[in-house]
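Why do we bother with a discrete structure alphabet at all? Because it lets us treat a fold like text: something you can write down, compare, and reason about line by line. To make this less abstract, here is a complete entry for Galactose oxidase. Read it the way you would read a sentence in a foreign language you are learning: slowly, and without expecting to understand everything at once.
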Amino acid sequence: MSYFNFNIFTFFLNFIFIFANFIPDSRWGHTSVLVDKKLYISGGLSLTNWKEFFYLDVSQHFAITALQWNDLTFTGPTLDVGSSIKQQWANVTNVGNQPTGRSQISCAKFGNGSIAIFAGYFNYVNDSKNDLWIFDSLALTWSLKNASNAPPDIWAYRAITLPDDAILYIGVPFMLPLYDSTTNTWKNLNTTGPTPPSRHYFSAVLTSDKRIKIFGGSSDNSSILGDL
Ligand SMILES: *[C@@H]1O[C@H](CO)[C@@H](O)[C@H](O)[C@H]1NC(C)=O
Ligand SMILES: *[C@@H]1O[C@H](CO)[C@@H](O)[C@H](O)[C@H]1NC(C)=O
Ligand SMILES: *[C@@H]1O[C@H](CO)[C@@H](O)[C@H](O)[C@H]1NC(C)=O
Ligand SMILES: *[C@@H]1O[C@H](CO)[C@@H](O)[C@H](O)[C@H]1NC(C)=O
Ligand SMILES: *[C@@H]1O[C@H](CO)[C@@H](O)[C@H](O)[C@H]1NC(C)=O
Ligand SMILES: *[C@@H]1O[C@H](CO)[C@@H](O)[C@H](O)[C@H]1NC(C)=O
């Protein structure tokens, strides 16, 4: 191959690599999970697509301005899994007190089979209820925790369970209330340095090296974000 041809060849190769790089749309209302150092992101609402499924390999060094996303969106025909597998939902009948219905919550899970929900949106009205409820999935009972110093009601936030079973709530405005489940108290974590723009409907995961990665969401001024 002559020098000239080689240059043309590498030029096209670069061209292909640049254009083959998958760049997901900004989105909100999606979900993410971290498995084997890969951050998988699924669904959400963007201007063009709501079925995308993609990941970022976070074991590699990455530049925040040029993320190497990998697209896994399934484009083939829908599989018919057949009727031999029993796929059904059952209603759980809990006993005793229970929280009022709500949306736009994020559920945190503890190591002992319990889950926690906090605040949220109530029948689409801005009804402030900064209540924290814990559901024991084994006894099927709810309990209301009246922990002092609870943050103002938040909605479309993300809850992250930390290794010590404390729950960190990431919400709007960008504050970091922490529920300490062992002492049943709230405190606010103070951060240093710049903070990301505040947002709703984003996704968040905790990494094994104790970082939290957030992606996308809807900002205070309703613009849709695509930043990590
Ligand atoms: C669960 O309860 C809802 C509301 O009462 C009802 O519409 C639904 O059919 C129930 N589902 C099952 C699987 O029993
Ligand atoms: C809900 O009401 C509180 C207090 O009036 C206000 O600060 C907050 O911005 C409202 N939230 C929404 C989503 O409208
Ligand atoms: C929390 O407050 C509610 C309402 O005031 C009360 O009914 C409930 O017993 C309290 N729960 C605890 C664990 O103190
Ligand atoms: C499970 O753990 C949570 C958080 O520490 C606690 O609030 C709850 O009471 C525990 N549930 C049981 C059944 O021990
Ligand atoms: C964060 O700062 C506030 C105000 O300075 C302080 O009251 C609070 O104790 C701090 N929180 C923590 C977890 O250190
Ligand atoms: C909306 O907020 C986002 C995030 O803070 C910012 O990047 C963007 O410039 C803002 N857009 C407008 C129109 O103010």
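What the structure line is telling us, in plain words: The two ends are 42 Å apart (CA to CA). Residues 3-20 form the longest helix (18 residues).
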